[in-house]
Amino acid sequence: MGMLKEFKEFAMRGNVVDMAVGIIIGAAFGKIVTSLVNDVIMPPIGLLLGNVDFSNLALTLKEKSAEAEAVTLNYGMFINTVLDFLIVAFAIFMIIKQMNRLKKQEPAPEATTKDCPKCFSSIPIQATRCPHCTSEL
User: Fold this and answer.
1) Do 98 and 113 share a domain, yes or no?
2) Helix, strand or coil for residue 101?
């Protein structure tokens, strides 16, 4: 019974739930980006390049025979996947950049010491005379 209780505490911990939500949203975002690349970005690029459908671009290594399917190198799909990755990476970069900008910067702690102008020793900030060289501050 103890292991079940430990697992429940682990699974319900805030960061585990946050991670699960992030993975689900990330998967959905990946589908949106894939659709953006395949359905919005690549058709105009293919049209500009002479009605090329990038997802169908392939280099045939071995022709189809009666016994086996054709062996192809699908570089068009690879181009689409690279574009997917670049868009996702850029979007994540922009989100993290904004999150870091919005984080409140903690103020620097107030100084508790200062340097003596005569001997450069570190002394308390309220001191009116240096304990090392006895000069007045």
Assistant:
1) no
2) helix
Structural domains counted in the chain: 2
What pLDDT is attached to residue 1?
A: 64
Residues spanned by the domain of 43: 2-106
What is the value of pTM for the model shown?
Answer: 0.52
Per-run averaged pLDDT (10 residues), the chain, 137 residues: 79 75 86 84 81 81 87 87 84 83 77 87 88 84
How is residue 64 written in tokens? 């189809």
| 67 and 127 co-located in one domain | no
Sign of CA dihedral 88, 23, 74, 47: negative
* CB-based contact 91:105 (threshold 8 Å): no
51 and 81 fall within a common domain: yes
Report how far residue 64's alpha carbon sits from residue 71's, in angstroms, rounded to the nearest whole number: 7
Tokens of 13: 């911990």
